[in-house]
Amino acid sequence: MDYRTISLAEEDGVATVTLEAPERLNAIDPRMAVELAHVFGAASAWRAILLTGAGRAFSSGADLSPDAAKSAGDEIQDPSAWLDTVYNPMVVAIRDCACPVVTAVNGPAVGIGCALALMGDIVVAKQSAYFLQAFRRVGLIPDGGSTFLLPRLVGKARAMELMLLGDRLDAQTALDWGLINRAVPDDALMPTAREIARSLAKGPASLGLIRSAIWASLDVDWARQLANERQAARLAVHTSDYKEGVQAFLEKRPPEFTGH
To answer: Considering just the CA atoms, what is the radius of gyration of the chain in Å?
Structure first.
């Protein structure tokens, strides 16, 4: 696919995906959503993905401009019509991604841009970044899976506060609430995120199975999740990395995983 709104760089098994629309604060138009769904759908080619934004924002949310509607072929702008066709497939592709995902939140993460940031398995934000459920400000409701994910991350009370009041949540408070994994000095964002992504890329193939099992656990009961773990374990024991891990343990040496 010819990427026009994102860029892709590959190094040491890590694919760095950057939202490349800084002139509109990386607002997500239908084209960008389709491109993100495509790149995450190709994740089996890499061992980790690092997602960030160009410029001073991670993402200002869905692009509600007339130009975005025109590019999508809509004479009347109706963002809700885009949910099934572009935005939901985008977040589903990230959920179903074959490898771990790190998000480096380099600035405001607003609306569906907030949902996109929180889809990361490891979320790193610079201290000046903030998270904003801005939907109430334009008369919409949270989307991109926000009403599913946020209550599970921070609980009903805080999720209600974020969505109903629509106040900014700074990175440090997001860390304190358990919404993200790291809040780092601004100049340490990309070095920290890259280090985490590289560490994940050196891990075994089972890391993809682990993230899949955790995502599955969010909406099944305990018995079903035990079955999910059993199935994932059956897949893991047939990987070369499992054999290498056991052999390295017996030989008392660090394992050398290949991701297979």
So the answer is: 19
Instruction: Pick the closest to residue 94 from 167, 28, 37 (CA basis).
Output: 37
Sheet strands (E) in 85-221:
101-105, 109-110, 122-126, 130-132, 169-170, 182-184
Distance between CA atoms of residues 31 and 110, nearest Å: 18
Helices 222-236/206-217 angle, 10° precision: 170
Q: What is the pLDDT of residue 82?
A: 81
CB proximity list for 190: less than 8 A, separation 6 or greater: 52, 104, 106
Q: Domain 6-201 in CATH: superfamily?
A: 2-enoyl-CoA Hydratase; Chain A, domain 1 (3.90.226.10)
Task: Name the token pair of 29.
Answer: 């138009």
Q: Which residues contact 2 (CB under 8 A, 6 or more apart)?
A: none
Asked if 76 contacts 149 with a C-beta cutoff of 8 angstroms, the reply is: no
Domain residue ranges of the chain, discontinuous segments joined by +: 6-201, 206-251
Cβ–Cβ < 8 Å for 108, 130: yes
Over residues 92-119, the pLDDT tens digits come to 999 999 999 999 999 999 999 999 999 9
Looking up tokens 């109430």 gives 136
Instruction: State the burial class of residue 117 (Cβ atoms within 10 Å of its Cβ: 0-12, 13-18, 19+).
Output: buried
The whole-angstrom separation of Cα 167 and Cα 159 is 11
